[in-house]
Structure formats: C-alpha cells, structure tokens
Specification:
Layout lengths: L7 E5 L6 H14 L3 E5 L3 H7 L6 E6 L8 H13 L4 E5 L2 H5 L3 H16 L4 E5 L7 H14 L3 E3 L11 H10 L5 E5 L5 H10 L3 E4 L2 H5 L18 E6 L7 H15 L3 E6 L13 H4 L10 H4 L8 E5 L9 H9 L12 E7 L9 H14 L2 E8 L12 H12 L1
Parallel strand pairs: 1-2, 1-8, 2-3, 3-4, 4-5, 5-6, 6-7, 7-8, 9-10, 9-11, 11-12, 12-13
Helix pairs in contact: 3-5, 5-6, 6-7, 10-15
Bound molecules: flavin mononucleotide (FMN).
The site of flavin mononucleotide has 19 residues, from α10.
Length: about 400
C-alpha cells in the first residue's frame, strides 16, 4: 500500500522492553520507512542514536499509561524528551478528572505540556483513553485538547479499557477543527483495521504491528492513501530588513520542513513591500473590511481568507516585533474574522542577547493578538545570541523550525 507506512508510529511501550528491543524497533522503522517510533521517555536518547541519519521521527509518551501524575512531572518528562530528540509528545490526559467534570484542571494539564513542547518545536498528541469515556466525554476531551494547543487527539494507550474503534475516530474527527489531527491506537493489528481507521478520519496509526499492517497481500494492488493526507497553505511574513539575516535562516528552515511534508508556503519579505501604517480612518468598518489605503497590503490580505496558517518571522527589535511586522499587523484591523480560513499561527524570532527573557514582551504581545483573533498558537521558536547575520548557523532553533514546519 503506497504511503501507508507514513501513517505508522512504530510503537514499543510494553514493560520489560530494553535497549536492544528499542534498537530493533528503530532499525525496523528505518527499513520500512515508518513515520516515527513511539517509545517511553527513558528510551528517547537510545532512539535518537539509533535513528541518526534517517528521517524517522521520535514520539515520546508522557504521563504514560495512567495520565495521573502531576502536571509538573508531565512537563519535566516533556522537556527531557524534547531535549533528547523527541519531536512529538504523546501525553495521557487525566481522564479521571474529566469524568468528574474538572474540565479546567484537565485543560491546564494539557496546556502546560503543549506550551513546554511548543518551546522546543515539538507537537503534542493527547491520549484520551476513549474506551473509558462516553461519547459526550470524548467530545469534551477533544475540544479541551484543541483549545489547549494539541496537534492531535489520540484514542488509547493500549493499556486501558478498550482500544481504537471506528466510532471513536469518527467522533474525534468531527469534534476537532481541521487544524487538529487524529491518531488511532490500541489494538490495531492488521491492514484492514488500519485502513478502516484512516477512512474514518485517522491521520496516524499507532501500532506495534506496523510491519504486518503494511504488508500487501499477495495478488492485491497496493492502495494509494496519499489523498487522505491534508496539506496546508501557509502564509509566511518575514519582517527583517535583511534578506540573508538570521530571520531569513529561520524562515528557510521552517519552509524546508513544511514543503517536505507537502505543505505550500507563500513567503512575503515585508521590508521589500510598500505597506503603510494604519491611520485609524475606520473606512473598513463601513466597507465590508475593505481598506482605504491601496498598497501592498492588498497582496497579503487575501491569504487570510485562503491559507490555513500564518507565520510571523521577526527579529526582536527593542523587546517587540520589527516595525515592518507591526505595520502589517495593525493593517489587519480590517480583517473579517468570520471569513478567515487562517486558524493557527507561528512565531519565529532571533535576537542578539543571550538573556532568554528578552523576547518575553514580544511573545506576550503575539499571544495576546493571536488569542484576540482566535488563532491557535502552533509554535514559538526563538534564537538567542544572534546579533549578526550568520550567528544562527549552528543554533538548535534551525532544527526546531524545520521540525515545526514538517509537523504542522
Ligand atoms: C532596532 C533594533 C533593535 C534591536 N533590539 C534588540 C533587543 O531589544 N534585544 C536583542 O536581543 N536584540 C535586539 N536587536 C538585535 C536583533 O534582534 C538581531 O540582530 C537579529 O538577529 C536580527 O535579525 P536579522 O539578521 O534577521 O535581521 C535589535 C536590532 C535592531 C536593529
């Protein structure tokens, strides 16, 4: 089956698995071209070493399998996993609290993990343990996960009550926006079941039986499931006046990852455009969002109504955005939020200082603005110590930006 291997998180989470078992898992993932391996956090460094030079990603489980440990412990495990090479975090939601109606606590737990992962360019899949939940609880869990910043909702741990079902996958697909993907896991052992999950809306399959699942039965034609993949259109605004500076390097890395994953990027170097500041004339208020100023902003605006994601790439200028980005942002006052297709945003930003608190006011402003217009934060990547063009060359932010683009 064409592309089915790219749906597979090749998984080994059972107690008693050792280093040699994880190395074997990784070598199988490389050989069969699986999307990722899914391992317990202890084994992330082992997988990192074993997968060197390959494009197989590492998914680390967090709070596994009960989801009942403290949020602090989950955040620590997330940071440890990311720092050692995980690009994806599969966290277990505290479903006991959800069942008792403590939605805020469940949200806070998920958000803390999503925020910690986003700071490392990693994405989060929230394991709901659907076998233990009613339909209403599944819907609530999906909505809380999306609001908290999850990239995926995932059915089961494989260690709890029941595994993935077509019904649960369909319900999850309906309960999240198209910015959130669905992972089916738990009890998927054959090709037929995997296909049924994909048809129900699953974007990823977690299984220990990936090799078996991808085997095409003799005499059968491999099916092409590539149409199920959902490429995105991405608007990238580069607000640096330097065309080959540190911001441009972050943009290039992000775009490389995004294009590899099949997404389309539309990059605007704002410094080369003529965009005038908003004059607060309020013309747009009475003219269906049309702006009275006719300049290059009219080239950017249509993307808010056709693209899925917006990326703000800006150097830190005195604790904030560059004037180029701020000017574009102010002109967005005329946007009509109801018609917008953009649902998520990214911030990429280099700065000269080595004090990591420097970008905080800019990040606060980015979060306030995107929260105001209802965009989900898909990732914030900053690069310290980048005063002169080229300083970013060996910075880990480049790798993180590429991973973020790839994992959108
Ligand atoms: C007007 C201006 C203000 C700046 N303010 C800060 C700042 O507050 N903190 C900081 O760490 N770097 C600051 N910088 C340095 C830039 O953030 C840094 O050089 C960045 O890497 C430039 O990105 P570029 O190469 O893409 O243009 C400032 C630079 C300029 C020109």
């Amino acid at each position: 089956m064409k592309n089915l291997e790219k749906y597979i998180d090749h998984t080994l989470l059972k107690p008693g698995a050792g280093i040699a078992d994880i190395e074997k898992l990784c070598s199988e993932a490389k050989e069969h071209g699986f999307y990722a391996v899914c391992v317990n956090s202890r084994f992330v460094p082992v997988a990192k070493k074993a997968l060197e030079g390959s494009d197989v990603k590492i998914s680390s489980v967090v709070g596994f399998p009960l989801g009942a440990m403290s949020t602090e412990a989950k955040v620590f495990e997330t940071v440890y996993s990311c720092e050692n090479g995980a690009e994806e975090i599969d966290m277990v939601m505290e479903y006991g609290l959800l069942k008792e109606g403590h939605k805020q606590a469940v949200f806070d737990d998920i958000k803390a993990v999503c925020d910690a992962a986003a700071e490392h360019g990693a994405i989060v899949k929230v394991i709901l343990e659907t076998g233990a939940l009613s339909d209403g609880e599944i819907v609530d869990a999906c909505k809380l996960s999306e609001e908290a910043g999850a990239a995926f909702v995932k059915t089961s741990t494989g260690f709890g009550e029941g595994g993935a079902t077509v019904h649960a996958v369909e319900l999850m697909r309906e309960s999240v926006s198209r910015n959130v993907r669905v992972k089916a896991s738990g009890g998927i052992r054959d090709r037929e079941t995997a296909l049924a999950m994909i048809k129900a809306g699953a974007d990823r399959i977690g299984a220990s039986a990936g090799i078996e699942i991808c085997k095409v039965p003799e005499g059968e034609e491999a099916e092409d499931v590539s149409s199920v993949l959902t490429p995105k259109n991405i608007l990238v605004l580069n607000g640096s006046p330097k065309m080959s500076g540190n911001t441009a390097a972050l943009v290039d890395a992000f775009c490389r990852g995004a294009q590899e994953a099949g997404h389309t990027v539309h990059v605007f170097n704002v410094a080369n455009l003529s965009v005038h500041p908003c004059t607060d004339c309020r013309y747009c208020f009475d003219h269906a969002g049309e702006c009275a100023i006719h300049d290059d902003m009219q080239r950017i605006m249509p993307h808010l109504y056709s693209d899925d994601v917006i990326v703000f790439a800006t150097p830190v200028y005195f604790y904030g955005f560059s004037a180029q980005i701020k000017t574009v942002l102010d002109r967005m006052i005329c946007m009509q939020t109801a018609k917008m297709t953009v649902k998520g945003s990214v911030l990429l930003s280099p700065y000269g200082d080595t004090d990591k608190t420097v970008p905080k006011p800019m990040i606060d402003m980015y979060k306030a603005f995107t929260g105001y217009v209802g965009w989900k934060n898909l990732g914030i990547i900053t690069a310290d110590g980048c005063m002169d063009p080229g300083d970013i060359k060996d910075h880990k932010a480049l790798e993180q930006a590429e991973a973020l683009g790839r994992n959108l």
